[in-house]
């Protein structure tokens, strides 16, 4: 029997729907319960879409996944899939270790080393916290003075999630597509600026490290490729006006002819090298090459519903609608059958 944590994460609804359509028995479980291991008695696999902004899941999700895999369960996401989730520093080490084409990335754990490196490297640079999605906690640094301020704060008071990010995103959504709904979104953004959501109020302060990536200029878009098992689908995301970031812009092109095959090849190769069940890649062009910015097992489903098809591992195109959540659960079931897990 499969187990599904049904109470959080947008992937879960698709998993439940798949089981219902295909008469597959599953047990709804609560991964936040102290007796989760007992709840999983008799189950062969667990699917749990835990999310980066859930401070509770961040406390124990990786440890639970590791423990259950040690017990012999198939878990989605597996530890190889999720240990580096929402951790750009961890991703740096992992991608460098497997020789992936990562944008040059630099992390420092003391103020002196970071300051000395900055004086030799110069700007512009892209500063990031290790966590955050949709361009949250990302800033283009164009002066040495600003970079020094960031370094100093990183090793002193530290950083907490910005109260204004949600408002900025809602204002951008209204400008992109004015409507009564997006206008009401601005009001909600103002409310959240005054009183942040619990998930952000309870996030810890980032300090005692600083992380920079080289800035790659002259990119008006990035390429997002998602690999699930032996399949990949992709979109082209345009940079919003007056910004350098494509993530979270909502300006999406779904035409497969816009997707470089080099990005697909790299994504399949790196996914295999790191042993991931599911991995989303952000690519930008640096000179004649495509470089990885960051990776994630989780992604927003809404951005991919208009994808007209997907590629297989041999880069053959398969036209037609698909559901990423179905790919995930199909691979879990296939794993169980292949390994004859009773």
Describe the structure.
The protein is an alpha+beta fold and 342 residues long. The protein has four domains: 2-82 and 331-338, 3-Layer(aba) Sandwich (Rossmann fold), CATH 3.40.50; 104-161 and 196-214, Dna Ligase, domain 1; 165-194, no CATH class; 221-323, ATP-grasp fold, B domain (D-amino Acid Aminotransferase, Chain A, domain 1, 2-Layer Sandwich), CATH 3.30.470.20. 37% of the residues lie in helices and 21% in strands. It has helices spanning 11-21, 36-39, 55-71, 79-82, 88-97, 111-121, 144-154, 165-176, 180-194, 198-201, 261-274, 324-338, and strands at 2-5, 26-29, 45-47, 74-76, 105-108, 125-128, 138-141, 210-214, 221-228, 231-238, 252-253, 278-286, 289-296, 309-312, 317-319. The strands form three sheets. Strands 9, 10, 11, 12, 13, 14 and 15 form a seven-stranded antiparallel beta sheet that branches. The longest helix is centred in the first third of the chain and has 17 residues, at 55-71. The relative contact order is 0.14. One of its GO terms (biological process) is SOS response. This is ATP-grasp domain-containing protein. Residues 92-143 form the ATP-grasp domain. Keywords: ATP-binding, Nucleotide-binding. GO terms for molecular function: ATP binding; metal ion binding; ribosomal S6-glutamic acid ligase activity.
């Amino acid at each position: 029997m499969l187990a599904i944590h049904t109470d959080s994460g947008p992937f879960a609804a698709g998993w439940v729907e798949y089981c219902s359509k295909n008469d597959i028995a599953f047990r709804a479980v609560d991964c936040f319960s102290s007796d989760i291991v007992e709840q999983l008695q008799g189950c062969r696999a667990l699917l749990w879409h835990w999310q980066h902004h859930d401070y509770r899941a961040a406390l124990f999700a990786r440890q639970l996944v590791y423990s259950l895999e040690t017990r012999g369960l198939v878990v989605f996401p597996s530890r190889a899939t999720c240990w580096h989730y929402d951790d750009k520093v961890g991703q740096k080490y992992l991608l460098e270790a497997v020789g992936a084409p990562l944008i040059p990335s630099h992390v420092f754990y003391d103020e002196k080393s970071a300051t000395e490196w900055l004086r030799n490297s110069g700007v512009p640079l892209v500063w990031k916290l290790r966590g955050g999605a949709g361009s949250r906690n990302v800033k283009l640094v164009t002066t040495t003075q600003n970079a020094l301020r960031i370094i100093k704060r990183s090793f002193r008071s530290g950083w907490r999630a910005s109260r204004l990010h949600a408002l900025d995103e809602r204002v951008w959504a209204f400008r992109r597509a004015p409507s009564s709904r997006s206008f009401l979104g601005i009001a909600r953004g103002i409310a959240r600026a005054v009183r942040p959501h619990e998930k952000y109020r309870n996030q810890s302060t980032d300090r005692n490290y600083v992380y920079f990536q080289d800035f790659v200029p002259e990119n008006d878009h990035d390429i997002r490729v998602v690999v699930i098992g032996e399949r990949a689908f992709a979109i082209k995301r345009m940079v919003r006006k007056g910004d350098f970031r494509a993530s979270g812009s909502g300006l999406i092109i779904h035409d497969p002819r816009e997707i470089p095959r080099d990005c697909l090849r790299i994504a399949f190769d790196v996914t295999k090298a790191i042993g991931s069940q599911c991995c989303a890649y952000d690519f930008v062009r640096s000179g004649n090459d495509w470089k990885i910015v960051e990776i994630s097992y989780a992604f927003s489903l809404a951005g991919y519903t208009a994808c007209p098809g997907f590629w297989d591992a041999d880069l053959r195109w398969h036209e037609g609608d698909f559901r990423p959540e179905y790919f995930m659960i199909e691979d879990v079931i296939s794993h169980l059958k292949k390994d004859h897990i009773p």
